[in-house]
């Protein structure tokens, strides 16, 4: 049976990747909700609806937003408008193990490889082309940028964000709310709410949509 879903967050550029994942899964998108003012990035303008006009109780909701705070804010907004069910979306081009736990509302984008005994919390976001090692634990609302490599037995705390191309070595612990910048090589634990960027790098570390 084809699953019909609503995408909540038309203002996020990554909504187009989520649309592609839905297409590959054979899911039907019935609406893309414009929940904030500003530009929208939905591929089909006919599917755009305002937040006030969305019927969120009728279909599972997918949140196409990368940043942990923005994703949580959108979740709360959607719930206030009647959302009861958030879909977990795994792109079929990704390789996933048989021992995998994935929480409600999480998204795994295209071309990822996940090791065995992986545990992913609620509303996590794993972007394109990541390689994630065995016995990985990701907390709720974790965001993993494209091309990230995480070795085995790593733990990433709730709401942490890891930028594109970062490399996390084995048994490292990333604390809740920490930010690891793009291209960083992480060899030691990162404290909760800390920010780690490569030496000499100039980065905008604002949490993206």
What does it look like?
The chain has 209 residues and is an alpha/beta fold. The protein has two domains: 77 residues, Rossmann fold (3-Layer(aba) Sandwich), CATH 3.40.50; 121 residues, UDP N-Acetylglucosamine Acyltransferase, domain 1, CATH 2.160.10. 11% of the residues lie in helices and 25% in strands. The chain is built from two helices and 21 strands. The strands form four sheets. The chain has a seven-stranded parallel beta sheet, covered by helices on one side. A five-stranded parallel beta sheet has the order 6-9-12-15-18, with no helix packed on it. It has a five-stranded parallel beta sheet with strand order 8-11-14-17-20, with no helix packed on it. The two termini are 32 Å apart. The mean pLDDT is 94.
What tags apply to this protein structure?
209 residues; alpha/beta; Rossmann fold; UDP N-Acetylglucosamine Acyltransferase, domain 1; 2 domains; 5-stranded parallel beta sheet; 21 strands; globular
Produce the secondary structure layout.
Layout: E1 4-8, H1 15-25, E2 28-34, E3 48-50, E4 61-62, H2 68-80, E5 89-90, E6 100-102, E7 107-108, E8 113-114, E9 118-120, E10 125-126, E11 131-132, E12 137-138, E13 143-144, E14 149-150, E15 155-156, E16 161-162, E17 167-168, E18 173-174, E19 179-180, E20 185-186, E21 195-196
Parallel strand pairs: 1-2, 1-4, 2-3, 5-7, 6-9, 7-10, 8-11, 9-12, 10-13, 11-14, 12-15, 13-16, 14-17, 15-18, 16-19, 17-20, 19-21
């Amino acid at each position: 049976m084809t699953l019909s879903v609503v995408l909540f967050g038309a203002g996020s550029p990554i909504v187009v990747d989520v649309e592609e994942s839905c297409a590959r899964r054979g899911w039907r998108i019935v609406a893309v909700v414009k929940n904030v003012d500003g530009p929208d990035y939905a591929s089909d303008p006919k599917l755009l609806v305002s937040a006030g006009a969305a019927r969120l109780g009728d279909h599972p909701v997918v949140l196409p937003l990368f940043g942990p705070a923005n994703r949580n804010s959108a979740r709360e907004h959607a719930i206030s408008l009647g959302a009861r069910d958030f879909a977990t979306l795994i792109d079929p081009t990704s390789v996933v193990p048989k021992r995998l736990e994935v929480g409600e509302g999480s998204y795994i984008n295209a071309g990822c490889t996940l090791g065995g005994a992986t545990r992913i919390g609620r509303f996590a976001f794993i972007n394109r082309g990541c390689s994630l090692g065995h016995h990985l634990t990701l907390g709720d609302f974790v965001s993993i940028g494209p091309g990230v490599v995480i070795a085995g037995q790593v733990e990433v705390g709730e709401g942490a964000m890891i930028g594109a191309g970062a490399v996390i070595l084995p048994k490292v612990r990333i604390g809740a709310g920490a930010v690891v910048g793009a291209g960083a090589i992480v060899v030691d634990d990162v404290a909760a709410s800390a920010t780690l960027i490569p030496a000499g790098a100039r980065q905008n570390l604002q949490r993206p949509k």
